[in-house]
Amino acid sequence: xxxxxxxxxxxxxxxxxxxxxxxxxxxxxxxxxxxxxxxxxxxxxxxxxxxxxxxxxxxxxxxxxxxxxxxxxxxxxxxxxxxxxxxxxxxxxxxxxxxxxxxxxxxxxxxxxxxxxxxxxxxxxxxxxxxxxxxxxxxxxxxxxxxxxxxxxxxxxxxxxxxxxxxxxxxxxxxxxxxxxxxxxxxxxxxxxxxxxxxxxxxxxxxxxxxxxxxxxxxxxxxxxxxxxxxxxxxxxxxxxxxxxxxxxxxxxxxxxxxxxxxxxxxxxxxxxxxxxxxxxxxxxxxxxxxxxxxxxxxxxxxxxxxxxxxxxxxxxxxxxxxxxxxxxxxxxxxxxxxxxxxxxxxxx
Length: 349
What we know:
It is built from 2 helices and 24 strands. It is mainly beta. The strands form 6 sheets. Strands 3-2-1-24 form a 4-stranded antiparallel sheet, with no helix packed on it. It is globular and about 45 Å long.
């Protein structure tokens, strides 16, 4: 059954990626950062952070359970979450954590346990992982029964999966290594060899770089992690640059929408982590959040940040020639504005 669907979905994915990278082609201004505070009750608290001031406010998430592993949509208006209650679920909310829909694994029975949702470049589809049936699936947001197995999805060995913002490649985390795959499932290859396992990654908005966390001092025995540090790799050249070198772990890096900065998590005390910012080159590392601690309920730690893109209209007719915007003749000639064609009809992907 899965192999039959594999062939059907392969053609659809190729058409989708070619036809619909539009929103990802315009990384916008830097908006807010969404993340999760771990500890206390509720165990996971979705939180919004102002990257300029560090001011944090909790979100009153409308869906049942606790939300974590949040990712902004390409237009910055929605968030996909992994929700944890008696089991995991994948839900999509608006920017305030309200008006949610949950995504369904196909033919799942009682124990689907979806997780790990991320956005397609078109902004109205997501990919996510199911325990039953096992694998990675593509679904239209809010459309029940739309989930289909990805061409490269027939495995749970992929701990993380994300399409590049331009839709031309898929990055996957397999057994501690990042692999790159063509959208049709072909030409999978390891991106970079590192001395220790890779734990998380994030695409740059230009699709030319990935930032990731590596365990540079893995424990000698069994389980857990030693000291995670943040690195960046150029996709074309495979050139790797180390960005952090702290005594404690640095993890969960994410690019800003304009590609100039990175937000990441740093351990500031044993068992306590906060958000930090740095330039995309690794310089200017500074602490962003100072989470109040409660010795009775805590400790509290910040984790899993993602940066909101805010799309902006071009300021001049010259800007219309870049990034996919199109100028439409006399209608906008004197105003110097641009319009972009957007359709939610399936034929336009």
